[in-house]
Each structure stands twice: as C-alpha cells, then as structure tokens.
Design a protein that fits this description.
Layout (H helix, E strand, L loop, with lengths): L2 E2 L2 E2 L3 E4 L4 E8 L3 E8 L2 E9 L3 E5 L2 E4 L5 H6 L21 H7 L4
Parallel strand pairs: 3-8
Antiparallel strand pairs: 1-2, 3-4, 4-5, 5-6, 7-8
Length: 106
C-alpha cells in the first residue's frame, strides 16, 4: 500500500461539505489525484494538494475545498472555505494552510 503524508492510495476523499470526491488514485510530490465514477462513463478527476487535507474522519480524508471555491476565486471573491474565525482587528480570511495554523491544526 503506497502512502505519502498520511494520504494512501485507495483512500476515500470528501470535501468540506461532505461531497464525494472519489478515491485517491495517484500520489505526487506536492499533492494527489482522486477520481470518482467509471473510467469510461461520468468520471471526474480531482487534483489536490497535501496541505488541502483538513483531517481524517472514519478513514475518509476531508479536504478544504468546496464545489464553488474555484468559481468564487475566478470571480475575484473569497471562497467561504477560506474564511476563519478571528479576533477583532485580525484578518478573517486565510488560505487553507494559513487557516489550519490559525485554528491550531497546523
């Protein structure tokens, strides 16, 4: 069984909203690929960074992405999954990696 940074080939992946992102198919130096669906029909591939992993719940990887994040970024907006709780006067937005450090997960 191949693994890198706690991510294992074949491991199930979900986004922060609980949407199925399939299973880990390949591991790379800075990230991994997951896919869902049949290779010849309705297949969706996802490429994620190791720093996108928020944690593991019941053996399933949870990544800090949501379906609308790419569209929000493309529109010049801040994705909801990048918003973090912050004290008054402190920045209320962070990249997923920065957010993990702010919230004590990094």
């Amino acid at each position: 069984m191949r693994s890198n940074r706690g991510v294992t080939v074949g491991q199930h992946v979900r986004d922060v909203e609980g949407n199925d992102l399939g299973r880990v198919r390949s591991l790379y130096a800075t990230g991994f690929a997951s896919a869902r669906g049949f290779p010849w029909l309705f297949r969706q591939d996802f490429v994620l960074r190791y720093e996108d992993v928020r944690g593991e719940k019941d053996g399933v990887l949870v990544v800090s992405r949501a379906p609308g994040d790419v569209y929000a970024l493309a529109a010049g907006e801040l994705p909801a999954s990048w918003k973090v709780e912050a004290a008054p006067g402190m920045p209320s937005a962070a990249t997923p990696t920065e957010g993990a450090q702010v919230n004590g997960r990094g």
